[in-house]
Fold this protein.
Amino acid sequence: MSEQQNSGDLRQVRVGKLKDLIEAGRDPYKVSKYEVTSNTKYIKDNYEEMEGKHVSIAGRIMSKRGQGKVGFYDIQDHMGRIQMFAKQETIGEEEYDWLKTYDIGDIIGVKGEVFKTKMGEISVKAEEIKLLSKSLQTLPEKFHGLKDTDLRYRQRYVDLIVNPEIKDVFLMRNKIIRGIREYLDGEGYLEVETPILSPIAGGANARPFITHHNTLDIDMYMRIANELFLKRLVVGGLGDGVYEMGKMFRNEGMDANHNPEYTAIEIYKPYADFNDMMTLTENIVAYVAMKARGTTKLEFQGKEVDFTPPWRRVKMQDMVKEHTGIDFDLINTDEEAIEIAKQKGLEIKPLMTRGHVISEMFEEFCEEHLQQPTFVTHHPVEISPLAKRNVEDPRLTDRFEAFANTWEIANAFSELNDPIDQRERFEEQVKQKEAGDDEAHMMDNDFINAIEVGLPPTGGLGIGVDRVIMLITGQPTIRDIILFPTMKPID
């Protein structure tokens, strides 16, 4: 008999038990409320206080054992597990007979007295038991559990039941997200909301998801970033700094670090620059690491990552020189740069420039060395269409990307507030898009209008919240820190 057939047969047995319950006037699905006065963890942690007290708990049957007129059941609620001791003499013969028909996975309510068994196990001596929900599906076997990672992600509700330790990861995720807000609110930043749907996909170079608005009969894009709307709010003078944390959507590949739908935060502060954003980045990450783990020195997959500020700062060109020996300060033409790219085996793309080559060289030869938190600064202007040019070398920008464990975790710059320069860069991006670059930036005339009204000198920062959570919780794949990651349909 196949596993699927066996599962179907077991389900039919449970359906039969449900019919028996309904016929006996015990339909569990008609129960709409159950009063709960305590939880498993509190009872165990405070046994001296709770001993002899009567409690009302509710949870899922995870195991059952015993014989004759006495039974032991492990009950699991959202805080942990506790043993229920059931005796026919106490709850009555009829109730005890019904209890013996209950299955692992069924949800029950228990009222009884807290005590310790002869074996010293903290338990609840049942005086009243009520079936609150009948589980028609069979949970994975106790000792093997749900090990198939694909199935774990598809059926997170089962994963949370049979692998309760993963709850700690998501509780830590919640703590980190709350910590980010706490830090920014404490620094006087204002949390805002901006559109998720827009007629223009802007704020980053990425391939968007496209949908259609029937009433307006126009295509709209799910946001790839919220940057341009937040900058509009800085133009309008809404507060001494604004931020938004939420979902972004990019129609790109999926791997250990990428999910099409992910959580990010963008932060903008008027009269600040990218140096201020470096300080803000390292302070936020250190703050939430302390809040979630009690330390800024974390182990990730056998390697230590030390988030203690200050982090290392290094120019992109200097890092390329460090790991390839090539000094781009001595290379001034696109032709020279492209020749070096060919020698290094890099792919030559249409409209490629010296700046693109520097970026490609960095990605190919430098990123793998960035284990410890590092700010890589001064990106070429060609790959930074929204960043302010560097005064000393206008070919570069006042921008940084933050790396840890070789992953990019943040991106920031002194924001470009020159509307003429901005329009020219958007026009260059449009050429890139027309040449086949699906990720190139669209023209956004309203944004140009906004900064023509006047954008003050501004520091802007984007942090990949999911990647920071992966590092702090020690999870190797983004699917382990997203409750319901995007999955390929089974059919």
Q: What stands out?
A: The chain has a mean pLDDT of 94. DSSP finds 16 helices and 18 strands in the chain. Residues 3-139 form a domain with the OB fold (Dihydrolipoamide Acetyltransferase, E2P) fold (CATH 2.40.50.140). Residues 69 and 88 are 5 Å apart (CA to CA).
